[in-house]
Design brief:
By secondary structure, the protein is mainly α. Helices cover about 75% and strands about 0% of the residues. It is built from eight helices and no strands. It has helices spanning about 1-5, 15-35, 45-70, 80, 85-105, 105-120, 125-145, 160-170. Helix 5 packs antiparallel against helix 6. The longest helix is centred in the N-terminal third of the chain and has 23 residues, at about 15-35.
Length: about 170
């Protein structure tokens, strides 16, 4: 088992920065735990969070020091290893979706996001992608808007009028 941990002789791209951020995050959590009640006694409310974050600091410091000692792997770049193009494209689509959600509304922006993303990732016929997108949107809309009554951004589709006319048909 110990050979499994000592087998890693090289450092992957971004590993040193990630380990450093772990150390900073652990120190921040330690400070937040200290702010709960200080360290007045072992049975204080902040004692367990202090102990857990102290262990996190120790472990993250050891890991960071080990990554400083190990050489970088040859021929591997951060961009290709941690952020491949497909992930960057989907993240961009999510960003665009979040920007247009309020102006276009939930129905149109979600349909466009689902359609483009499914077509990009799944690469099937447009009719197949259209049907999957529409079915997923209908299911999500029914669950969140009608069952849980979550108010979703309306945008340019007059959703309230449509829902009130449908409800008036049932009376």
């Amino acid at each position: 088992m110990s050979s499994q941990f000592s087998a890693q002789k090289t450092r992957k791209p971004g590993e040193r920065l990630f380990c450093f951020l772990l150390v900073l995050g652990s120190v921040y959590l330690f400070w937040q735990a200290y702010k709960i009640s200080g360290f007045s006694e072992l049975s204080s409310p902040g004692a367990f969070p202090l102990a857990a974050s102290a262990v996190m600091i120790l472990a993250s410091c050891i890991t960071f020091l080990n990554t400083l000692k190990s050489p970088a792997v040859e021929g591997m770049r951060f961009k290709d290893h941690c952020l491949p193009p497909i992930v960057a494209i989907v993240m961009t689509l999510i960003l665009v979706y979040s920007v247009i959600l309020e102006s276009l509304g939930f129905i149109l922006s979600s349909f466009a996001f689902l359609f483009v993303t499914i077509q990009f990732l799944y690469r099937r016929s447009i009719l197949y992608t259209l049907s999957i997108s529409l079915l997923a949107l209908i299911v999500v809309y029914i669950i969140f808007r009608l069952v849980f009554q979550v108010v979703l951004p309306e945008g340019i589709v007059p959703e309230r009028e449509i829902l009130s006319s449908i409800k008036s048909l049932w009376r």
